[in-house]
Design goal:
The protein is mostly beta strands and 183 residues long. Helices cover 9% and strands 39% of the residues. The relative contact order is 0.08.
Length: 183
């Protein structure tokens, strides 16, 4: 691990006070305050996937108000308690706010994409296939699962810049192959 906040002197734990610095762990980067040698206070935490958390931390975990900014441009504003979101709102990159109770976007009654709601429908015969128009070109044999391309043989999802996101479990594999567009 690397830190520009570490000195070569052996610290006295009784003298630890609030400090700031940058620290990297397994591909993540922490820029923020420390209390008694722990990540605590205002912080910016960059994950290996380039998802960025900006907000408050306590004892090394998200705690208090904070926002996750995703590489896709979407964000999750939340109140965190010991690393878990207890209340929050998700906003898609196009500005659409997710509403758990009154969600009517692309439901059984209104199948328009957000861009169609904002800009109107295209003429007959020019159907829009995704919220992005024109849609992304999907590599042959892969699926577009919304946050990247899925390889059903390797069962791996990579983001649109070809960086590893995750392995799909059986449920996600089934959902992607049943519902997502295939190249």
């Amino acid at each position: 691990c690397h830190s520009d906040a570490i000195s070569t002197e052996t610290p006295d734990p009784n003298s630890w006070k609030l400090k700031t610095g940058a620290m990297e762990y397994t591909g993540s980067k922490y820029i923020g305050e420390y209390v008694d040698g722990r990540m605590e206070g205002k912080a910016k935490y960059i994950l290996p996937t380039e998802t960025i958390y900006v907000g408050e931390m306590k004892d090394g975990v998200f705690h208090g108000e904070g926002t996750l900014y995703f590489p896709s441009g979407s964000q999750y504003d939340a109140v965190w308690e010991n690393g878990l979101a207890i209340k929050g709102t998700y906003t898609f990159a196009v500005g659409l706010h997710y509403d758990e109770k009154n969600w009517h976007y692309c439901d059984g009654y209104d199948r328009r994409f957000h861009t169609e709601i904002l800009n109107g429908l295209k003429p007959a015969g020019m159907a829009q296939l995704t919220n992005m128009d024109p849609p992304r070109k999907i590599p042959k044999g892969y699926y577009d699962c919304g946050d990247g391309f899925y390889n059903p043989v390797m069962r791996v999802i990579k983001d649109y810049r070809n960086r590893f996101l995750r392995n799909a479990d059986d449920d996600e594999h089934e959902w992607i192959t049943r519902t997502c567009r295939k190249g």
